[in-house]
Amino acid sequence: MDFDLSADQVDLQSAARELLSAECSIERVRGAAQTGGFDAALWEAMVDQGWTAIAVPEIQGGLGLGTVEIAVLLEQVGAHLAPVPLTQQLLGLTVLADSSWGAKLISGEVMTAAVRTPLTRNSDGSVSGRLEPVIYGARADVLVAPCADELVAVDLSAVERTPEPAMDQTRELAWITLEHAPAETVGDAAAVNRHLDRGALYHSAEMLGGAEAVMNLAVEYAKHREQFGRPIGSFQAVKHRCADMLVDVEGMRSAVYHAAWAIGADDPEASVAAATAKIWCSDAALRVAESALQVHGGIGFTWESDVHLYLKRAQLDQTAFGDARHHRERLAAMLTQQLESGGSVLT
Asked: Are strands 112-114 and 142-147 parallel, antiparallel or unpaired?
């Protein structure tokens, strides 16, 4: 069995890397971080390349590609710390592509926010609830969220929201409080489960890209930074730390692309794979960023170093759509159910 990306997927990866290298330099990221965490020109470039439409069926105006292609894009988004809501837009378009929102979401004219926190359905059909801090929640026009055994879409145009300060300044955050807000059902219980799986996977893919990028920063620094007349990368302690980072990154890659394949193929183990990816990536991304900081030494703790940007993004991504503890509990519940139904947790 061939586990490599296909030729078309490699071409997509190269094109994404090329666009982001040109349009999302670290200077652009730092500039966006100082002005609210959104780069409108980069967003427009992504929309022009069809990134928002990548997994939308062709009949609905999309490119008709799959979950693995989404993971390819989001890995590069994470690697370049792109200050745009592509992850949230793709999550929303999964269920809104054929709605009245679809065309405007594909064109980037409006934006969506997507969350794991469930809302409460009121007797009049409206929804209420205070959500966890929402990535790009102040900028979004529509919210996709679970509500009991349904997935709902909420028009946010009449909901007051303000951006909140966060450690990860490369993206916006906002609290959203809904009180009897009108909501449209856009999915059943199965759609809720797919939403949670995709949210876990998409943030894991971003963490993979960020972890590999910050590992590469550390390796390059170790090659050129000298102490006692020799590169610090020649010291055994630094070699071991860099080797551990590589093991973590490759483990993340395996978990992410297995989950992407499983979700795209509607594999029965898709939820197990998604939870496993979020568990591993949430822990490993932080370990890699912290190790990169240690390799950089004192300079790594400064604002001028880029390491802290990756560390802070990993800290936000590891909590989005459930942290490692949440997904360990979710995974344990799924495996327990399999055992109780006479199945096996071994494949």
From this structure: parallel
Model pTM?
0.95
What is the structure's pLDDT at 347? 56
Q: Is 60 exceeded by the pLDDT of residue 301?
A: yes
The half-sphere exposure of 137 on its side-chain side, counting CA atoms within 13 A, is 26
Choose which CATH entry (1.20.120.1630, 1.10.540.10, 3.40.640.10, 1.20.1530.20) describes domain 7-187. 1.10.540.10
Architecture of domain 192-339: Up-down Bundle (1.20)
Alpha-carbon distance 276 to 121, whole Å?
A: 30
CA distance 117 to 140: 16
Contact call for residues 249 and 284 (beta carbons, < 8 A): yes
Q: What angle do CA 6, 244, 30 make, to 5 degrees?
A: 75
Where b means 16+ CB within 10 Å and e means fewer, 233-263 reads beeeebeebbeebeebbebbbebbbbbbbbb
Mean pLDDT of the region 261-265:
97
